[in-house]
Each structure stands twice: as C-alpha cells, then as structure tokens.
Amino acid sequence: MDHGQLSMVADKFQWVFSEALLNACGKEAKLCRRQRVITPFRLGLALTATCASQRVETLADFHRGFNALFDTTITYKAFYNQVAKPHFATFMGTMASRLIGDMTLQVLGFEKGRAFAEFRHIVIQDGSSFAIHDALREVFPGRFKVVKPAAVELHTTMDLLCDAPTTVVLTPDTASEQPFLPEPASLRASLLLADRGYLDLHYMRRVQAEGGFFIIRAKAGMNPQVVEAWREDGLRLRALRNKPLKVIHAKLPKRHRVELVVVWQVEEHPLRLRLLISWNRQTKEFCYLLTNLPATRYRLEVCQTQPIKMTWCPLRLFRQTTRSLRGGCKRENEMDVHRCSRHDDLADQALGNGLTFLKRELGKILAQQLAKGLGIVNDLLPMDALLPRVG
After folding, report:
1. CA–CA separation, 87 vs 28, rounded Å?
2. Phi, psi angles (nearest 5°) of residue 237
3. Which end of the chain has less neighbouring CB within 10 Å, N or C?
4. Are residues 71 and 213 in the same domain?
5. Which residues on adjacent β-strands are paired with residue 289?
6. Residues 68-107: pLDDT tens digits?
C-alpha cells in the first residue's frame, strides 16, 4: 500500500482513521504523553497498512513499513520501545474494535412484518479451542494438560445480519466463556444464540430486562420450578406441573418433545423462561434449550445430531485443523425456528421470504445467506497454524 492508496483509505474512512481521534485514543490509553515522530495515529496507520500490503513475520517488518510509509529513519530500538509498552495492546485493541464496529454493513434484512424483522441484530456467540506450542503452557494453559498442555480459545461474537464478527477475544483455554458475552444493553430488540458454556441465569435476566431475546443451549442438572408443561402435539401434561424439574425428570416422555414453562429466583426476582426438551436417541440423553421468545409467536424445536454439510466454503485446512479442535465435525442439537403455526399465512410468508422454516433442513436457518455467515468458521481455521509463529 503506497502513499496514494493510504491517503485514499484515510480520506474514505475518516471516522476510523481520524488523526485527532487516534491520537486522543492513544493518549487516553496512556500509550504516549508527548507526540513526537511515532504518534498513535502514525503507528496505528502504519501497522494497518503493513498488514494489508505484505506478509508480516517479525516486528522488523512493521519497523520497515513505518519508515517506508512516512519516509523516516526511526531506529529499531525506538520503534520497539513503543510497541513493547503495556498500553500498546490496549490502544491496538481499541483501534481494532473501531475498525470492526464502524466498517461493517448490514447485508441481510427482512421485510417489515416478517418474523425476524423484529430484531435489530441476530448475534451468535461461540468459542473454538486451538492447541499451540507446548512452550507457551505457562501463558496459555490448556484444559487437557496431559495431551495439549498449551491451548487458546477464540471467543467470537458475530452479527449474522452484517455477516461479520463484531468482537474477537483470544484467551487461555482455561478461561471462563461467560465474561465474553455481549453487554445486555447492546442486545435490546436483538436475538442472541449461544451454546451451553455461556449459560448464566443472572446474565439472562439482565438481557431480558433490557428488552433482548436469546436462545441458549441449557445444561443437564438444572432444577427450576416447572409451572406448565406441554407435549409437542399440544397435550397438556398436568402431572408435571408445579414441581421441581429434578422430581419429574424421570417422567419426561422420550417419544415426544416437551415444552416447559420454568421459573428461577434470580437476584430475588422470578426469571420465567421456556425450556424445550428432546430425547437424543444417539447419545441417550436429553437435550435442552432455554429461551424467552414468546410462545404465541415463535415455536422452537430441538433436532437430533447430524453431520454438518459445509458446502458453503472451501475447507483447505480442514484435515489439519480437526486434530486441534475439541471434536469431529458434528453439530449437536441444531435448531429449526418456526413462525407460530397459528398464522394461516405461515407457509406463504416463509416461502415468500426465502426461508427454510417448516422444511426441516438441518444446518440452514436462512437458506444459503445465513449458511454463508457460518463461513466465518473457515476463515478462522488457519489460526492454529499461525499462533505457534507468534510464540
């Protein structure tokens, strides 16, 4: 990237590459007190331009890129002293967050009146573990210390309607997943999809209080109070009402899915949610989903485990990567989300909107558009090959 291209990018995205904003950001992050040749603006711009124009393997690549971009002769030691500061990571994290947040555009949408048109965002939260070089075990300890003593987990928040990640955090594999969930206030009028590792009743209560919605895979062993119970064919299960879940767990039917209305006492306030339960014939255990979506408008189903059909993206590094992932290529408990079948025009709306509702095509939620959104997984696959180089 030469000076002309850099100037064009800086002019086009002034709200991201603003000199005054980036310098103020560096000052706030305590990266520098006096702005000399290596200002936060120049440093951030040079690092971005270098990464965009060449392969970077060492800090010397950034040093040479900085000097070439701004026609200076800053010594390597002076440059290294800036990037070695503890506050440099804070500054670059803030800049990366601005780049991701401000330069994403909504690429998917729904007509007014459709089921998903009610949500400003549809957010997916998940994490993937990667084994790295054993020498990094002290900094990045893994959960499986005997087999993989060093590992990291990549926590990613993806906005499905923008087809882009909004937050990416790299932590040791032993770190808890829950602290990396989106802020409850940011989920107002939005839908969050998350796995059971992110289950937190206090968090769910705050999301609901902010006007947000969620579908989260729940864990076995929960013991809420069951208020109401229905079978999937509409039969009301009166014998399961007004009892703790553990008491009626052995009585849950295995041939039919069950929907329960359950209540927890969270922070001295009742948390009333829908709990959907389905028996998995392959694993011989129940699967659970928790949601606060209104039953009068949305119906959820828990489906059996099926292999993923990853036909939407190339899998060049798949063979090398599956050895470092938690398991094989399986997606457990995939969901079909249906518009409430009480509406007579349900089929026309679903087909007219190009959705796969009521077709029971596993692994697809919004046909190929949303399946393409899952291509982010493929984009992150090379991480297990790149992280050892950083070490």
Report:
1. 10
2. -95, 85
3. C
4. no
5. 217, 276
6. 888 888 899 989 888 888 888 888 888 877 776 666 666 7
